[in-house]
Amino acid sequence: MSTKEQKAVTNILFVCSANVDRSPTAERIYSGHPELAVKSAGVSPHATTWISAALVEWADIILCMEKWQRKTIEIEFSSHIGQRVIDYLDVPDSYRFMNEKLVRIIREKVDAWLEEY
After folding, report:
1. How confident is the model at residue 70, as a pLDDT?
2. Which CATH code fits 8-116?
3. pLDDT at 1
4. Residue ranges of the domains in the chain?
């Protein structure tokens, strides 16, 4: 396949509160996807990886786990969002990292979101 025929990679940033359970699970699930580059971050000051302007600018799509996280990013990084797509998946903070139910919920919601996108 020539360079011109290769599919473009879409950069997705998954965001939750502390970057401990939900967004790292999403990052792990989609890390091997051939058409996606993925990273994760949290919006809380105590997050393992705290969201930054550089991460926002890296992303083509920002998928938050909850609506309030989306609003926080829209307010704090308004000058960095530009044409980026930012949305939320409505995944509750009820599960530990790679919990079977959490994996299923994230796959269902992200796959449906990507299909629509």
Report:
1. 98
2. 3.40.50.2300
3. 41
4. 8-116
Q: Please provide the DSSP assignment of 74-116 as one string.
A: HHHTHHHHTT-EEEE----S---TT-HHHHHHHHHHHHHHHHH
The distance in angstroms from the start CA to the end CA of the chain is: 25
Q: Check: CB of residue 105 under 8 Å from CB of residue 63.
A: no
Mean pLDDT of the 43-49 span: 95
**Are 69 and 41 spatial neighbours (Cβ–Cβ below 8 Å)?**
no
Q: Which residues contact 107 (CB under 8 A, 6 or more apart)?
A: 29
What pTM was computed for the model? 0.93
d(CA 117, CA 114): 5
pLDDT greater than 70 at residue 2: no
Q: Token pair of 107, please?
A: 């796959």
| 52 pLDDT above the threshold of 60 | yes
What does the block give as tokens for 101? 């139910």
